[in-house]
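Exercise 7. Given the components listed, write out the predicted structure of the assembled complex. Treat all entries as one system.
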Amino acid sequence: MNDELALVERLRAGDEAAFAHLLDTLGPSMRRVARMYVSTDAVADEVVQEAWIGVLKGLDGFEGRASLRTWIFRILVNIARTRGVKEARSVPFATLAGDDLDQPTWDPSAFGGPGEEWAGHWSTLPFDWRGLPEDRVGGAETLRAIQEAIGRLPPMQAEVIRLRDVMGWTSEEVRNALDLTDTNQRVLLHRARASVRRALEDHLRSVSEA
Amino acid sequence: MSVTEGLTCRELVELMSAYLDGDLSPVEAGRVEVHLADCDGCEMVLDEFRDTIRLTGMLSEEAVTPAQRDTLLGAFRDWKAGRG
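Answer.
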């Protein structure tokens, strides 16, 4: 937090390198978040620009009650939503988050069925990749498989896993930044991780058989 | 057997993220640990979730497009000039 206040002071003092760093760190995610609410990449770029201008104008009033990045994302999301309304583009939450949030993430057929002796316990285990050497597990192809799996997720799930697990934000920051309930933030993260785990399993099984 | 009295594997897989993030209550976390102590399958899947989080953390973010970057650095300079 002290580092953050120091950053805010540098921005207020007009330190361009500090601004460029923030822009490079947050820019790609801001563009994706804006794109959830508006119709085109070009409009998303406009929303991101408008958000940064709002950030600069509001900088003197920033009190550090939320983290800086959370505060920036709130400005962004508000502008993006307003813009989406103007475009008469209303995007249902289920479209952003996935329409199966109340369903289990795991295929029920992997477990013993009701009435069986081992009801609810494993009948089919996934591929165990733990014995594979790290240079095969953590290689560039694996990272590409993860990237692709994230790209296939509903956009809000994709953003939650990126902010949490790629960029290391806390659950509170992500929930506030994306205006999610605590429960939804957790559900989206778990679903996203479960999908990525499954993609990893498929990828690493094929690696082990090659 | 204790596994059949507590959580099922099917229930436990849905708690793995929250467990790894330390988001479960002490009682819930205790139920998870009792199950894990007896269940090699869930122990393995939990290891895979851990590995998933670790490997996802190795990704790098995309870059801002150069045009957007130039526009915004320009906006920053204008803002700075306006502050005098």
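Discussion: The CA atoms of residues 11 and 32 of chain B lie 10 Å apart. The longest helix of chain B spans residues 66-83.
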